[in-house]
Specification:
Layout: H1 2-12, E1 22-36, E2 41-56, E3 59-72, E4 80-94, E5 97-109, E6 117-129, E7 134-148, E8 153-167, E9 173-188, E10 191-192, E11 195-207
Antiparallel strand pairs: 1-2, 1-11, 2-3, 3-4, 4-5, 5-6, 6-7, 7-8, 8-9, 9-10, 9-11
Length: about 210
């Protein structure tokens, strides 16, 4: 519940921004593949998510949260819930290219069933408007200094995502489909214990 409490706090400030150029609130279904192969944690599942997108001139802010239940491939392993909160702030250098920075936190329940992770990110975002109704986007980021509930460090950690959206010309209603991939090469002592998460999202956004 900690992750969703934080997401509600982020979304609670949205009404104060209604004077912004564009605000979208999102509701989506989630499909997840989670892997900690060296630890024997490898599973898949699904759930739901919420989000808010705000654009102010050259700046954009994206806050999102999701909750998913993961069923391990190994029937003797423990099932667990993944709750993640993310925040990204971007600045558009051109109409099609932005720099982004932000952070994220992944919570696991029950404790110790998998790794909880906290991270900062620095990356880029590019969105191309195909026409008045549809657009495609791609983003990538390097993950800075991930922190793990079970200790360890990661010299290499990255994520990328791509998506497509289509909706009404006035932007009030928008359907989207997105895919995200995250890889963290975690190391504990001399042991390599990488983490890998694939996330598929599909949903609807309402614009103001």
């Amino acid at each position: 519940m900690r992750g969703f409490a934080l997401s509600l706090l982020v979304l609670s400030v949205a009404p104060a921004t209604l004077c912004a150029q564009k605000l979208r609130l999102r509701l989506e279904a989630i499909g997840i593949t989670y892997q900690e192969v060296r630890e024997g944690r490898d599973g898949f599942g699904g759930g739901g998510g919420v989000g808010a997108e705000l654009r102010l001139g050259r700046f954009h802010v994206v806050a999102s949260a999701y909750n998913a239940h993961v069923e391990p491939d190994d029937t003797t392993a423990t099932e667990f819930d993944v709750r993640q909160v993310d925040l990204r702030i971007g600045y558009a250098l051109t109409p099609f290219f932005s720099l982004e920075a932000g952070g994220g936190r992944r919570y696991i329940e029950p404790d110790l069933a998998a790794q909880e992770v906290g991270l900062f990110r620095a990356g880029v975002f590019s969105e191309n408007q195909l026409n008045r109704l549809a657009s495609v986007w791609v983003r990538g980021a390097y993950l800075l200094g991930p922190q793990f509930s079970g200790g360890g460090s990661a010299d290499l950690a990255f994520e990328f995502g791509l998506g497509v959206g289509i909706g009404t010309a006035n932007g009030r209603i928008r359907f989207h489909a997105e895919y995200e991939f995250q890889r963290i090469d975690r190391r504990v002592g001399n042991d390599e214990v990488p983490l890998q998460v694939s996330l598929a999202r599909t949903g609807i956004a309402v614009g103001f």
